[in-house]
Amino acid sequence: MRAGHIDRVKRRALRQAVTENLETIRGLPPRGVRPNVRLGRLWLRRVSLIIVPLTLAGSTFLLSKPVVEPMFVVQRAIPRKTGTPAQMQMMQYEKVDPAALPLSVRRVVIDAGHGGTDPGTTLPTLSEKAVTLDIATRLRKLLVQSGFEVISTRETDQQIPLRERAHIANASASDIFISIHVNSIVDHTNEHGVETYYLGPTRDAKLTRLAAEENRESGYSLADMRKLLDGIYADARRDESQRLASTVQSQLYGGLRNADPGLQNWGVKRAPFLVLVATEMPAILAEVGCMSNEKEVAMMHKPEYRDRIARALFDGIRAYSIEKR
Amino acid sequence: MADSEVLHVGIDLGTSRSAISASNGERFVVDSFVGWPVDMVAKKVLKRNVMIGHEAVANRTMLDLHRPLERGLLKEGSDKDVEAVRELLRHLLRLVGVDGNEGKLSSANVRAVVGVPAAALRTNKQYLRNTMKGIVDSLMIVSEPFAVAYGLDALLHTLIIDIGAGTTDFCVMKGRYPTEEDQRTLTIAGDSIDGHLLKLISERYPQANVTLFMARDWKEKYSFVNTPPDKVVVTAPVNGVPTQFDITNEMRAACETLLPPTVETMLDLLSRVEPEFQERVRNNIILSGGGGLIRGLPEALQDALKQVGGGKVTYMHDPVFVGSDGGLALALDAPDSDWEKLSS
Question: Cβ distance A285 to A273 under 8 Å?
Fold first, then answer.
């Protein structure tokens, strides 16, 4: 055995590697995300010194007011005004106390791409704006049922400029942003796949064209855009967005390939979509399918397939949330 | 357990190829493919219950072929892929002499260090650990670039860039086991180059009948960035007739997709190193993995380093075993007491 002869640096690194393995065996989360119990106890003692006098001082006031039970409220940036009875029924979510669930990601913004006079890709029987809204609604239901708070940038068929979408997300102080879109690759109608984008520059001319297409109707001036794009490289959110994109893409492809064996995994990519530039939290744009492919269009007509897409996106968000714990 | 009864192994479980280095001096590499005969006829023709590696790829038309690793990690949720990775591991161990027969080593004698991508989560590692139960006695799972650095005695002020098939791993070594902020994993790697190459060839020569396996073989023979060393001319069938095609531009375009994200991540990690050590790290960049074989890549990375004051990129001439050799070094250095704790 060479253990006695190896140098100090190697011995320390080896010891740390073994410790990391033992922690994995015990099911402990990585050190960086583990709560510091000692520090927590210290703060608890300090905070109690402030809380106890405040509680005593305020008790007379509190006793004079009716007690309001804390309740979890699903926030909606845009009030829902219309909807079919079935859609209305979907909104009757069961209330869940998010504090009871160990989620590091609590508030999620769901952005259904396009809407109103901006239909996105349009086919005789299907439009991108309708597909994205349907999937967003299904995804929202799954998230709320699991204790996430959800902000929707749109809940009806209405046009919301990209600037407004980013504003809704930023004002809500959400943890992550997910924009749902459907691809259309007219040059290669025999191909279909899924891909997820996070913010970053790209040298790929096709991606630049795609970003330009999705950035239409942005609501930003040229000066605003330059300022926003200047920040792309320096943006510290990018690492987290990349992680979120990888997790969602993995679940998206994994969740759909069984139903569609011909589906291709086009991976995680960077592109300067404005909705990703202007949001202040980890943000991704998922292209959940391809409307240029006949086979996929036929599947997209089926509610079960749209449900499967929503489920895959949900699994990605949940996996990222667990990973962040 | 006495040392004489123990076999220490380092395993680089790769998306494309898996390598094993053992303390008895044996080293092997196999393609990470496992296949089972699709029906009784195939079984009769092949005369085997399972085929692994190159043999499996060669007979793929008769096999239910599995590539059980995706982006360097075991695919979750598929029993067949779990069984495939177990077959692959058993095969690797058999190659180095572990077969359980009388007088031979059995799995109860094996202590293994397995390298996984830098960004692998604890859940991924736990899943791999569960999958390897019963195949080895004790198991240590480490970040693949850490295994490389350990084997090369490059644990201090070094940046490892390990370009595999599924992932490109970066790890700045700071004299300790790397933490999350010391490491990055990109999913742009050998496989994504294969995909790009196939797409570009199909676009330029729609009449050519080309598969992903052919694109992969060509990449392994002719890959380059920047200036082509020679024209890349390959043969592919057109309506069954072997025909030659010049794919020089397509090869360059596909390989160069690796450059922007690699350069960007390399510079980003370097900028996070303590300022007084940045120059030392810049001059100690080690390129490993199959991607290190792309001609012109070390020079292209060195060119990119000029914008931050220059640096040196060293290319590993034996990239196939550098990870498994590092794993073996770790396995040999770990004391018995640690191996007992890591026993499954």
Answer: yes
Domains within chain B, CATH numbers bracketed: 3-149+321-341 (3.30.420.40), 153-188+259-319 (3.30.420.40), 190-256 (3.30.420.40)
Interface mutation vs chain B, best among A5, A7, A8, A10, most B CBs within 10 Å? A10
Contacts of A134 (CB under 8 A, 6+ apart): A303, A306
Composition of chain A by helix, strand, coil, percent to 5: 50, 15, 35
ipTM: 0.82
Which residues in chain A have Cβ-Cβ distances shorter than 8 Å to B150? 10, 13-14
Q: Does A20 touch chain B (CB under 8 A)?
A: yes
**Amino acid occupying residue B125:** K
Is the CB of residue B129 less than 8 Å away from at least one CB of chain A?
yes
Q: What is the pLDDT along chain A (325 residues), one digit of tens a residue?
A: 444 445 888 888 889 889 888 887 876 655 544 444 444 444 545 544 555 454 445 444 444 444 333 333 333 333 333 443 433 333 333 334 444 444 468 899 999 999 888 888 888 888 999 999 999 999 999 999 888 899 999 999 988 888 788 888 888 888 899 999 999 887 778 888 999 988 765 556 566 666 656 655 555 544 455 455 544 444 446 778 888 998 999 899 989 988 888 898 888 887 777 777 778 888 999 999 999 998 899 999 999 999 999 999 999 999 888 876 6
Nearest 5°: phi and psi at B20?
-135, 135
Q: Is A27 in CB contact (< 8 Å) with chain B?
A: yes
- H helices of chain A, in order, are 8-26, 37-63, 85-90, 128-145, 162-171, 205-214, 222-230, 237-256, 274-277, 294-300, 303-324
Contact yes or no for A2 and B330 at CB 8 A: no
Q: Answer whether A323 touches B (CB < 8 Å).
A: yes
The contacts of residue A179 (CB under 8 Å, 6+ apart) are A111, A113, A165, A273, A275, A276, A283, A284, A285, A286
Enumerate the residues of chain A whose CB falls inside 8 A of the CB of residue B187. Answer: 246, 267-268
**Best CATH choice for the domain A85-324 from the list 3.30.300.30, 3.40.630.40, 3.30.1240.10, 2.40.50.140:** 3.40.630.40
Domain-wise residue ranges, chain A: 3-63, 85-324
**Given A14, A28, A29, which is nearest B333 (Cβ)?**
A14
